[in-house]
Amino acid sequence: MLHHFRNVIGAANRANVSVYTLDGAGLRTGSEQAQTARRLTWFGSAGVGDALRGPTTTLEMLARETGGLFVENTNDLTGAFRKVDADRRFYYLLTYTPKNGKFDGKWRTIAVKVPGRRVDIRARTGYLATREPGLLPFLTLLGYEAPALAALARSPAPADLPLRAAALVFPGGEQSRVAVLAATDAAALRFEADGTTGKYRTDFSILARVMNARGEIVRKASQPYRLSGPADQIDTAKRGEILFFRQPSLEPGTYTLEVAVHDALATRSSVHRSTFVVPETKAAALEVSSLVLVRRAERVKPEERDKDNPLYMGDVLIYPNLGEPLRKSRDKAAAFFTVATAAPGNAPQASVEVLQDGRAVAKAPAALPAAGPSDRIEHVIQLPLEKLPAGRYTVRLTMTQGSTREVRDATLTVIE
Known about the structure:
By secondary structure, the chain is α+β, with helices and mostly antiparallel strands. The chain has three domains: 2-99, no CATH class; 135-281, Immunoglobulin-like (Sandwich), CATH 2.60.40.10; 282-416, Immunoglobulins (Immunoglobulin-like, Sandwich). The chain contains six helices and 26 strands. It has helices spanning 2-14, 31-44, 55-66, 77-89, 146-153, 234-237; strands at 21-22, 70-71, 107-109, 126-128, 164-170, 176-185, 192-194, 199-201, 204-211, 217-225, 228-230, 241-246, 249-250, 253-263, 268-278, 287-288, 292-299, 312-313, 316-320, 326-327, 333-341, 349-356, 359-366, 376-384, 391-401, 404-415. The strands form seven sheets. Strands 16, 17, 18, 19, 21 and 24 form a six-stranded antiparallel beta sheet that branches. A five-stranded mixed beta sheet has the order 20-26-25-22-23, with no helix packed on it. Strands 5, 6, 12 and 13 form a four-stranded antiparallel beta sheet that branches.
């Protein structure tokens, strides 16, 4: 829960809010020794990881880092409230321009001093050096997001880690569901082993945000990954893939997906950017989702299914391929998944075309299954790889119904 607590402190500092905390238990026997022990722990802890062992230490940290006052070990609460009231009515607002203009997402300490006078000073202890362009009021900056946001602001964009990402659109109603996925390889991240505890740890984060055509951030999501386990299992843990997934709803328009991964232990980052379109939806009209290259699929128990996840085909969950090449010696065919909503009347028709450098190398009709509930058509297309030479291809799905024609493309890379 530490990063959530840090986010509270960061939000208070950005809003110029000082938090005053009070331990109402009154005078304690032996409290001075306990207080000394707590403060030694607080100052000695790396990243204040041990600072949240007790509620009073948490209260002290919250007050200290926001420029407030922590009141404890006293039965004179009236005097304490006098101090709080005085601070509320008498204070100074100081501003300055830092000499370091690099917005790298790191924490920068602020020290306020009054030379030549013996005074107690309460002030915020620092800030996260990050820009927040176009941040809407309902989007909160979380503390661990700062390095990833700093990576997005860098030019040229960093590419220190493998990063694959995509935004897959599934139309429906006034707002379409968008599957936002990002993946990185665990082997590329730093795993640190602690000889004392016999455990490994990681500290990295993935952040994704969606910007509209005006450059405003309309959706933002992130996840910190502080993984741990037995040190002798590091090699096993590094064999996996880290997959990030969100499914926001968006109105029709053109958007940019920005994704950043930041490894705090290795101080390395990567950024991915891509543009996608959420089409206008019309009542009683043919609607077609993105054409999704399938990496793998798994059957999910009814009690574990997410009914809102658009990547389900019945009881099977589709895991998209985010750009990994298919190997002919291992993969006999490429599978593509799409979802369509048909208009009443004639059944829609579909065809698949494979293009290389804009030239068609293969074309065939695609037999669509019957529509399911709500006229929803879920379809998987199998494309044999045997006759495709190694190379990069565009697979194009064309679906028609009456005078309506929808075209969806997906990229396919084949290696021997």
